[in-house]
Design a protein that fits this description.
Blueprint: H1 14-28, E1 35-41, E2 47-53, E3 56-58, E4 61-67, H2 71-78, E5 81-88, E6 93-103, H3 106-115, H4 118-126, H5 136-149, E7 161-175, E8 183-190, E9 193-199
Length: 201
């Protein structure tokens, strides 16, 4: 079990608390401690949900990367608000994040893309994410085509591939308690810092 979380005296900075919980999850989660559920909505407010991987967390927000022409990319362009959920079953903890979304800079996207394995870079060129695919063979043909096209030298970042940053306005930390008497603390962003309150489980 993780150390007891003192919900009556939470630390002032939720980002630092998140980093501490993420580090603990990295020691105990069997797969993908950075996995998070990403909720978006289209221009009409119809929601959509999927799992993605966190690729950075800083004072400015939570960063992930994707195909901009994917369903989530199009929804974020139309309605730049999102919610995240991290669930670390091994620790019996979860974190919920809500906030506005903005694109990362081209330099940030270039740097992260350059750090990816080469086959993942080729896959970003080959995949027309979220669009109909006639067969597995059709996908493999596109992978082979772009693998040949970028056989020499570094693979450039596709123009349709980049990242988003979710700037949190609300972050909730939840830790399991006996008999469903869980600990819940929510941070609300305010001018110059954060306001915290404890919630009933």
């Amino acid at each position: 079990m993780p150390p007891i979380f003192n919900a009556d005296a939470p630390p002032p900075d939720p980002i630092e608390l998140f980093r501490a919980w993420l580090a603990e999850a990295g020691e105990s989660e069997p797969n993908d401690p950075t996995a998070m559920a990403l909720a978006t909505a289209d221009a009409e407010g119809r929601p959509s949900l999927r799992m993605v991987l966190l690729k950075g967390v800083e004072a400015g927000g939570f960063v992930f990367y994707t195909n901009l022409e994917s369903r989530k990319g199009e929804q974020l362009a139309a309605n730049p608000q999102a919610a995240l959920l991290f669930h670390w079953k091994s620790l019996r903890r979860q974190v919920r994040v809500e906030g506005a979304v903005s694109p990362v800079t081209p330099a940030e996207a270039d740097a992260y893309f350059a750090s990816r394995p080469r086959q993942s870079q080729i896959g970003a060129w080959a995949s027309q994410q979220s669009r109909p695919l006639e067969s597995r063979f059709a996908l493999e043909k596109r992978v082979a085509y772009y693998g040949t096209k970028h056989a020499v030298g570094s693979v450039p970042r596709p123009p349709h591939w980049s990242g988003f940053r979710i700037e949190p306005r609300r972050i909730e930390f939840w830790q399991d308690g006996a008999f469903r008497l869980h600990d819940r603390v929510v941070y609300h962003r305010r001018e110059g810092g954060w306001r915290t309150e404890r919630l009933y489980p």
